[in-house]
Amino acid sequence: MKIRTLRARPVALLCLPAPRLALLSLLAGSACGAFAQTAPASGELLAQNLRAPSLSETVVAATRTPQPLADLVADISIVDRETIETSGATGLADLLARLPGVEFSRNGGPGTTTGVFLRGAESRFTAVYIDGVRIDSQSTGGAPWESIPLGLIDRIEVLRGPAGAVYGSDALGGVVQIFTKRGENGTAPYVGIGVGSHNTTKLEAGISGASGTLDYALGLARDDSKGFNARPVAGQNPDRDGYRSTAGHARVGLQVNAVHRLEGTLMVNDTNSGYDSGLGKDDRNLHTLHALGLNWTAQWNSAYKTRFSITDSRDEYETRPSPYLSETRLRGYLFQNEWRQGAHLVTAALERREDRLENQPIDAKRSQDALALGYGYNAAGHTVQLNLRHDSDSEFGGKGTGSVAYGYAITPQWRATASVGTAFRAPTLYHRFSEYGVATLRPESSRNAEVALRYAQGNSTFSATLFRNRVSNLISFGGAGTCASSFGCYANTARAEYKGVTFTGSHRLGDVQLHGSIDLQRPRDLDTGKQLARRAKQHATFGADTRLAGWTVGAEVQASGRRFDTVANTNVLGGYTLVNLYASTRIARDYTLLARIDNLADKDYQLARTYATAGRTVYVGVKWAPQ
Question: Model pTM?
Fold first, then answer.
């Protein structure tokens, strides 16, 4: 098949966010035209809309090294496997949208172009990792959310707020760390099957375990649906836009001795989904995602630990029958050092990242070399976290980032935190080398400040987080300039501000566990004062669950305020409220039954203008997992 460059005009792309056009239309954000200058059991709690961990649970998203949640100042949510299974979510973005500070947009059904906004920040401003492997696209910018298979995920950590001083380029809005299952003692096979609305079927199977020094986990997942008409408007193809997703993962570890551990991880996903381009054809997205990682961890003594990683990811996007093909390759090398002594933790990391984009006629690459230093202290109610990092880019030179965070336990129940930090995003290779590209583009930069107050006692938790994140040198699309196109060029001309407050809480009332969050925010273009595209000023989630006659039953409410489809704030996406119901029970020793109804009232709403959503859906699944 001949590979060609898409030549459609950028402004037209901003107004018609079809999946295959999104490679150009995202410009400075995942939303269309974002900155165009032209038109239950004991000990379990539920918080932040999903199951909350104990404060002793270990997380890695905040500092890239394992730490107890109680030692962190960062704003983090954790999603475990049980929550993923009972969520009934059709995709990763649908699940994340039930967390505080998270919104998403999608051009149609599952498998189509999807953007995720953390605290209102552009989709490309979230750094995403699968088992430590960086996932990104150098054409659109940002992770291919629609291609990450939810059925193979065991755990998710979501860090809200910039983390450039830890992760380097891209983490202006936050970080999402995704983990597949790791083998434990014994052997644990599982098989699951489910059916749902729109002729949807889900199949999953896997096995994990450990014997002696070897542990392993293997899994397969297949999702298939006839879907629904993605664009039910005049002039569009009235067919059903279904999807197929086939994914697999493997994770194998070897404890060589008391000091050394080797581990390899692999995830592969192929997605074939339908979309409407308005040409009356059966347009298809073909999306392939590979993530491969090799790790060597050494615990040299009780204080000193090292980790060396080599990672490789590939994101390939193709459309048919219109021939378009874009491929991003990322190679990463990380040498992480940790030294722990009492209340002190010192980290030092050397990291190299190599990006390559093939999008004819583009065949470009670049590299970034970085040194990152960190210091953490936690004792006597005080927590301190300091981080510095310097990235040297082969194209635009050096960029430094830093962060300072402090937490204080006012009482055993109440804790206050405050932090400031900077971050950046290097221009994508498409921004620089396409016909609209400018080689001298500068990195987009952010400055963030936030304060939080948190309460936890027994089965009750509460938090309030106030934040303000300002981004400068934001890449937008302007008039004709030094690029090859006479129509217009990319430029560092825009500025944005994401500020707001997030409230979260959970409380057990008798046998009922209540949980919820409210986000009040103002994501806006600082030059025009207008609201950023596809983000609401208010969104919230609430839920309750309980045990009843051997069943776990629950209800969720998701609400979002009015949004605009373009930065001009002319095309309104109305607010909406969705009600979801779910129930699960053990029907035999090794069998679990799950049933869900999403969008109970069959609410008609849009996440992107002219694109439909699924309406009321029903799903029933059974899983076999020997106890």
Answer: 0.91
